[in-house]
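Hello,

Our lab assistant flagged a job as stuck in the queue for most of the afternoon. It eventually completed. Since we weren't sure the result was trustworthy after the delay, we are filing this so someone can double-check. Below is the sequence as submitted and the structure that was eventually returned. Let us know if re-running is recommended.
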Amino acid sequence: MAKEYSVDRQVFDEVMVPCYAPMQMIPVKGQGARVWDQDGREYIDFAGGIAVSCLGHCHPVMVDALKAQAEKIWHLSNVMTNEPALRLAKLLTEHSFAEKVFFANSGAEANEAALKLARRYAADKYGPEKSEIISFKQGFHGRTFFTVTVGGQEAYSDGFGPKPGAVTHLAYNDLASLAEHMSERTCAIMMEPLQGEGGIVSPTPEFVQGVRELCNKHNALLIFDEVQTGNGRTGDFYAYQGLGVTPDILSTAKSLGGGFPIGAMLTTTELAAHLKVGTHGSTYGGNPLACAVAEAVVSEVTKPEVLAGVRQREQWFREALATINAKYPVFAEIRGKGLLLGAALNEEWQGRARDILVAAGEEGLMVLVAGANVVRFTPSLVIDKADIDEGMARLERAIAKIYS
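-- returned structure --
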């Protein structure tokens, strides 16, 4: 038998690469929107594993799907296909614009596939000089060297040597600068249809429509990074469906597996043809366990009552945050859509988002930040009203303690 170790937070400092700074408590159990740590202390989860736990913790449809598949087959590699992957791909094409699916393990890998497809398509159809990728400042597209370079936050990409070239960063929601810059060299635009890590920033209707039109004008592909916005998070299955703009390529992950690691790139038959055999791949991509869980998640999330429930929960969150802010004015505005919400701090509270996160943790509430000035909420899409109410009571206590 393998040796069992007694683990506490100190072990992290002993054995883990220090690129994270996790909280002191270690969760050991989750159920619905609640989590318990090693000491048995209960927390309400408004963080959802950074927009991953779309059905909460240990939802029966996920647990049942995993148990059933675990008794069948775990891994095959892409030398052959498998039933869960095929069923999931069919589901995703039925609920989106896509005709073809590529499976990966994460959002970064899905974005890597999207970017490689865009470059390959442009090279095949127009020649190697059509290679420029435009993305937006404060965007986030993953941590591989290609995706982190395309992401518009230099702090994440600097210090690792020469970066991939032909990547341009422009201001989000500034259509004029985009129109001025684009040319026939532009291969693709990659954007989040609602910026997540960059502060929960929604696109204006004019901007997102204009981006689509400029892509059409310059024969460039439009890539929507829906890693955080996808799978019901905004109240539509994918956020593009609520914007009236359809991308050419879409990346999805996070909530896709509800907690089981999986990502996917969705596209059209015409574009997919440019990733011929051998041009791209993933050993674990399309893993039967992951696809079986994701199939259960997608089947649940696409129910009309679940998507309608996201919009209802958004209202509950907005109303509760307004009530707290009336007593303790710390927020300037509530941004976002569905259950991807950001409470932007007012001028007096600039830089204190993490203070609120820490204070909330002390009160038994898990929240997130999106930069130094935005408290972010990405809870389960099916979180109960009672859990929202209790979580907001804890948030109010946390803010009251640090309010001055």
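-- support follow-up --
The delay was a queue issue, not a problem with the job. The result is valid. The longest helix spans residues 304-327. Residues 28 and 38 are 6 Å apart (CA to CA).
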